[in-house]
Amino acid sequence: MKGWSLQNSAENKENKKKAVRSSLRHFITYVIVTTVIIFSPLVLTGCDLMEDAAEFAGELKGKLRFRDDEDRDDDDLIDLVSDEKDYVITITDDEAEWNSFDNAAKLSPSGMTSLRLDELSDVTSGYYYMMVSDEEKEVYDEIYTLLTGFENDSVLSTTDTDMIDHAFTCVLVDHPEIFYVKGYSIKTYTRDGVVERIAMSGTYTMTQSQVMEFLPELDRYYYACTAAIPADGDEYTKVKNVYEYIIRNTEYDLRAPNNQNILSVFVNQRSVCQGYAKAMQYILNRLGIFCTLVEGTVKENEAHVWDMVRINGRYYHVDTTWGDASYKLVGESNDGNALRPPEINYDYLCITTDEILETHDIKEIVPLVKCDSIDDNYYVREGLYFTSVDDEGLRRAFEKAYEQNLPTITLKCADYDVYHDMEEYLLEEQKIFNYLENTSVNFVTVEEQREIIFYL
Predict the structure, then answer these.
(1) CA-based Rg of the chain, rounded to a whole angstrom?
(2) pTM tops 0.85
(3) Which end of the chain is more exposed for a tag (fewer CB within 10 A), N or C?
């Protein structure tokens, strides 16, 4: 990237034409997402099982309560003792923040399915649910019911721990409103070396009543975020407005509390990538727009999360985090003041899979739709995407920027040939002054993104 100042030689014949070129740095902020798993196995066998189980349950008469509640019905009891063999109970605690997705990304459930696009056309949420097998859908539903009901020790329909882990991740990916769960624990009931049942408990960060206290905050943010969307705004307009609002009202902060869920954005206005992405997902889903999370890595294999949206039937990647913190431009203007970076970086608003792969690697937890349209890409929709040097298109773009009182305008070129042609036309030949209201201009060239940014 290169920063310049340019003065119109026709307007300033006494001065020699000069351009100040400054080396700019491309700052990209990433979040490191880690997983910490603490296992606490407890094995009870023979007489020890009887004594210890009776001690924590209070009663053993051929049956044992596995819930703490005193008023459970008999349906909540598990038959632990047979005439011949006793169970071995193993308790495993997964205290990991689920955010890394790493374990789920490595799993390949045998029944995983790939839907046709037309089967997704009416779906606004629950993408991961749609993409797993029927067997895993049943487990997903059980886990969803468990977590939303703040339940513990619920018996699942499977003993496949890989499927349980994958389904648990899919539930939390699909449901940003479940912001009060950070992990889970399971009790494995084994007899004669065979696992016969598994009971699951959520690891909750707050009580149900505490969750209810936050709901008005979620509504307040939602209505503030969507207030500026025109009543007749199309899906692109809604996505763009939400993207801009979250960026303008959130500070990227690795130390932000609750930074793996929506509370960090909605309540504290400070977050990291997962908070940004889940906030985007939550609001767009409430607006009736399809949005789901995508997990992967960025530079130096650092974990990262962003969104995939559907606009007018076509799918796009959206990275709100990088729209806010992907880079800073540092240059010198002609009066010695540092150039401020654009408030919002639109390079990651509605882009293709090929474009996102230039800077991101995708880890598929379930099969993902390939995004191959640019129809609703930001630069295309705003008249800032150029496939050639287009005098009329440039004139319209600058007139619109002045009408909207924008501080900058970014011109995006379709390929490097167009980019170099635009550089020659606007900068070397100084045709930029055909479109400006001033006689001098500061600008930045970002060759790797095929962009020229002018400060108006």
Answers:
(1) 28
(2) no
(3) C
